[in-house]
Specification:
Blueprint: E1 10-13, E2 16-19, H1 20-47, H2 52-89, H3 94-112
Antiparallel strand pairs: 1-2
Coiled coil: 24-86
Keywords: Coiled coil
Length: 113
Amino acid sequence: MAANRIKGITIEIGGDTTKLQTALKGVNTQVKSTQQQLKDVETLLKLDPGNTELLAQKHKLLGEAVAATKERLETLKTAAEQANQALAKGEISKEQYDAPQREIIETENNLKR
């Protein structure tokens, strides 16, 4: 997750105005944790590919990863809408507008994988 791309952007989610990095912090932490757990399960599956407990854990973790990525995407889309409005008003620069767009594209690609 490229946090450096989205610095300085403030959004409103559920009536709460916050920095985009702060809004994504929990989701990014969850995604990172899930990815680490998946890595551990994959390593163990190489040793015992038929282990049904590990396969069930992998399936559950993949579902959690997809859900967290979708949540991240929704947050980014909210930020993009607000950035579009702010750009039209001249409150942010084109570079600040482009940052959430790049993050959305990256997150959509991650979701497709």
